[in-house]
Amino acid sequence: MDKAVREILETFDNQYPDRDYCIHIVCPEFTSVCPKTGQPDYGTMTIDYTPAAKCVELKSLKMYMQQYRNMGIFYENVTNQILDDLVAVLNPRKLVLTAAFSARGGITTTVTASFEGGGK
């Protein structure tokens, strides 16, 4: 994913930067394409993060997630790419991304990627 797609993500100032609290976001309609078969992949992206100075603006997150709709990308790669992009724009204290993909061929896959030790 190029940097221009990352720039879709918008943030706003955290009004409680000195408090540790968790923001839980569920994106139940994530879609991408298997780069090997060309078949669509469906999944649920769950983001749990402890913000520092910035929070993600939800409409921009929705638009960002939609950029993957026609992209051929493996589960592991898309999970880590989204984590990298969120960490780059938010610099959170902690962020965990859980990507639970629907069954295809009788197999389900869940990929969890995390970041800890971010901003102040």
Task: Give a description of the structure.
This protein has 120 residues and is an alpha+beta fold. Helix content is 24%, strand content 41%. The chain contains 3 helices and 6 strands. The strands form 2 sheets. It has a 4-stranded antiparallel β-sheet with strand order 2-3-5-6, with helices on one face. The chain has a two-stranded antiparallel ribbon with strand order 1-4. The longest helix is centred in the C-terminal third of the chain and has 16 residues, at 75-90. It is elongated and about 45 Å long.
| Overall mean confidence score, pLDDT | 95
Helix fraction, binned, reads: 10-25%
Main β-sheet: number of strands, strand sense, barrel status?
4 strands, antiparallel
SSE string, helices as H and strands as E: HEEEEHHEE
User: How many beta-strand elements?
Assistant: 6
Radius of gyration: 14 Å
Instruction: Identify the strand order in the major beta sheet.
Output: 2-3-5-6
Helix and strand composition category? alpha+beta
Shape call: elongated
Q: Beta fraction of the residues?
A: 35-45%
Distance between the termini: 27 Å
Short description:
This protein has 120 residues and is an alpha+beta fold.
Name some characteristics of this structure.
120 residues; two-stranded antiparallel sheet; 3 helices; 24% helix; elongated
